[in-house]
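Why predict the complex rather than its parts? Because the way molecules touch one another can change local conformation, and only a joint prediction can capture that. The input here totals 751 residues.
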Amino acid sequence: MTASTETGHPNVLAKAVREGVFAGVVAFLMFLLFVGIETYQDINNALVWRTRWGLLAIFVLVAAVSRFLSVGFIKPHIDRRKLAKAKSGVLEISEQKSFFHRHFLKIALVFLLVYPFLSLLIVGKQGSLKYVDNFGIQILIYVMLAWGLNIVVGLAGLLDLGYVAFYAVGAYSYALLSSYFGFSFWLLLPMSGILAALWGIILGFPVLRLRGDYLAIVTLAFGEIIRLVLINWTDVTKGTFGISGIAKASFFGIWSFDAGASNNFVKAWGLSASSVYYKVFLFYVILALCMLTAYVTIRLRRMPIGRAWEALREDEIACRSLGINTVTTKLTAFATGAMFGGFAGSFFATRQGFVSPESFVFLESAVILAIVVLGGMGSLTGIAIAAVVMVGGTEVLREMSFLKVVFGPDFTPELYRMLLFGLAMIIVMLFKPRGFVGSREPTAFLKERRAVSGSFTKEGHG
Amino acid sequence: MALGTTTTMTNDTILKVEHLSMKFGGLMAINDLSLEARRGEITALIGPNGAGKTTVFNCITGFYKPTMGMLTLQRKDGKEYLLERLRDFEITKLAGVARTFQNIRLFSGLTVLENLLVAQHNALMKASGYTILGLLGLPAYRKAVDASIEKAKYWLDKADLTDRADDPAGDLPYGAQRRLEIARAMCTNPELLCLDEPAAGLNPRESAALNTLLHQIRDEGVSILLIEHDMSVVMEISDHVVVLEYGQKISDGSPDHVKNDPRVIAAYLGVEDDEVEEVIAEELDGGTR
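Output of the joint prediction:
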């Protein structure tokens, strides 16, 4: 075996060169027009074009060299490792997992709990604002939304493209009820969840008889309807101006985070004035909400209703033949998913202090759905990782000002967010077609709990 | 037994199909079909391809709404249900009719055990107080969960699947999938089990194992209605055979009776129409001699 790989080596290199050149040619043809040539308007407003051979060369070189390396070195290396493993008799599945792998969830939870303090220690109060708010809270909101959508899409297999509608219902419930009636966050949080769940049921009824593509289109329309109502019902929602000055959440009514309040948190504890305390508090609130979502999802999966959801995803007709009322089963899935969207929405409103229909566009639904699909439908861990990668990744892009040195001062990395988003999705779907975590944990077992490979589970037909 | 009650069914009839017709557009799939299945018996529904057997099944189990006719099911406690008025899931839930499918419909991504637990959905939902009490983890619910696992184990044992309980259902070999589908249907506590070609695609050994399973199910007091092409299976296990052709009943009786019925022979061997008359005439002559 070793002899053949050794003699095969020059062949591999020759093949790598060939494939590298081929990749370069393909890249050249692909990027020739939309990287190599740039159109712009000159001083007379006429459209003219100039060439960017340097940039095109970079693109072509990257493609050629990475193909060369992957064919010539990376793939043989992986093959050799697999071979060595097979020889030593260790099966890949029985392999002892590393400490980090086994205790991943505990480590992640501990890290999340100490994260705000860690960032306070390392970058100080002012620096922490960015890390706690932009990274921590932002990512956790998406984790919660994706976990909520996971109940509808991942467990029940109902493709919902209008999930952001429930997020909007939650946010506006809090914004409107708190500014018109002055109710507190802790009262309105469950209320917005219930209202969103109600809307979930209202959406559920007409779409129950629809499946697959048709269901997706109707939910998409529902999301747009909610947004258009928010824009046009100006008497109540103030339309595109949005609602500003939404009350902050209080520390369970004991301390307030409003600067003027007598029971101000900062004053009560004798701390120096900074908005970072509020952000840290919000971080723990959304963390607790996420944990609630995860706990309820895990518990529900082991209950008959959760199993019925998964059975519905696998085969709806078989479900009906077993006496399961698919109408109520679908409705509960819609309502439960919507409820968590509503919780996340009311949290979003209190964190921003401002809501407008701009925040609830279709793109948001698409991003949340993308996170669920990338993470692996049904898997909480996978979805959380996908949210970190996707949302955290776009935030990291803002920090990459050093790229301006390479691409010139006009380069704004944030603008490439969607391009990279798409690229990342294609790569993940190529190598992990079932998402980061494609397997499914069984909810009951007789002797041993073995993960079910993703090749057996179905995506549902709506 | 039935005297004194208002029902017209005797207690040993579990299912009575009267004047059932099913029309798809211009096609008359079933035309004025009447049949009876007796309690505690295995009734087979046979007939050439396209005779309307599966359509009858779909009408009984609520997947089709019949164009005409009455389907009456009587449970052991004497309650009667008109199946054509119930929704498909209510037929299983209230009337106690369970079914399997011609092309196996398992929850392939769930494990074998989970498949059997999903089948006990209604009992568990009730025990969990429609999820709310179950979330609190009350002892009554936990007892119900243990009971459901015991029941799953019982049927796993009967279907010879205990070793594969924690494997995904989609990973089982074909014969085992057939048995699992039957075990899953049995976990809904049915009184009438409808099997759509349970022996299709099985090898002789698997077929024999299936026969044993079906006999065990019958011995538990569950009546079986089955569609089957494999004559050896039908003749061996059924107590009562109904033969369909072009949506109409052409013969009804014991396996031996049906086997020798000239109309059945004609239907299966494809004799010309005028020859059927001859065959019947000959048979009648033979009978009088």
